[in-house]
Amino acid sequence: CAEWLCAGSTMTGLAVEALQVRLPKARVLYSSATGASEPQNMLYMRRVGCFGFPDMASMIKMLKKSGLGAVEMFSMGLKATGAYLSRTLSYKDAEFRLDQIDLHPAFRVLYDRAAQFWTLLLKITEQLPKATGRRDLRKSLMWASHQRFFKGLLIASK
Q1: Which of 57, 70, 106, 115 is in Cβ range 3.0-4.6 Å of 4 for a Cys bridge?
Q2: What's the CA gap between 29 and 45, in Å, rounded?
Q3: pLDDT (tens digit per residue) in 35-77
Q4: Which residues form the Strawberry notch AAA domain (predicted)?
Q5: Are 47 and 17 in contact (CB under 8 A)?
Q6: pLDDT bucket at 1, cuts 50 / 70 / 90
Q7: Cα 78 from Cα 73, distance rounded (Å)
Q8: Taking the CB of residue 107, how many other CB atoms lie within 10 A of it?
C-alpha cells in the first residue's frame, strides 16, 4: 500500500485499497457510515478521480488546507455527478419534544448583533462582481457559512 495511505488507515481502508490495486478494472461503489466529514476519510476513494492532482493524497492535502467549505463544495460536486450519496439515519420510533425556553437578555443582544453582522456581510457579498456563466460560488459559500454559524449559535444558547 502507498505510504500516504497506510499512515493512520483502518483495516477496512487498507482492504479497500488492496482490492482496488488487485482488481484495476472492477467497478467500485464506495460506502461509508461517516461519509466525507474529514478529508482524510476519503483517501481510499482512488477511483473517484484526483481532478488534476497527481494522487488522492495531494488532493486531500489541498482540501484540508482550504477548509471545511472546500470539503463541502467537493462533496456537493461528487453528489451532483452521482459519484457520492449522502443519507440520514432512520427516524423510525424516534420521539421528539419541543420545549419553549426564555432566552437570557445577553443572548438576545448577541443574536441581534450577529444578525446585523450577517446582513452587512450579505450586502457586501451582493456588491462583488458576479461570476459569468455559472452559479455565484461566493454567495453559496456565504449562505452555507451563515447557516453553520447560526446553527452553532442556537445550539450554544441551549
Answers
A1: 57
A2: 9
A3: 666 777 777 777 777 778 888 888 888 888 887 777 777 877 7
A4: 9-113
A5: no
A6: very low
A7: 9
A8: 13
Q: How many residues does the chain have?
A: 158
Only one residue has cell 449522502, namely 86
Q: What is the 3-state secondary structure (H, E, C) of the chain?
A: CCHHHHCCCCHHHHHHHHHHHHCCCCCCCCCCCCCCCCHHHHCCCHHHCCCCCCCHHHHHHHHHHHCHHHHHHHHHHHHHHCCCCCCCCCCCCCCCCCCCCCCCHHHHHHHHHHHHHHHHHHHHHHHCCCCCCCCCHHHHHHHHHHHHHHHHHHHHHC
d(CA 138, CA 116): 19
pLDDT cut 70: percent of the chain above it: 84
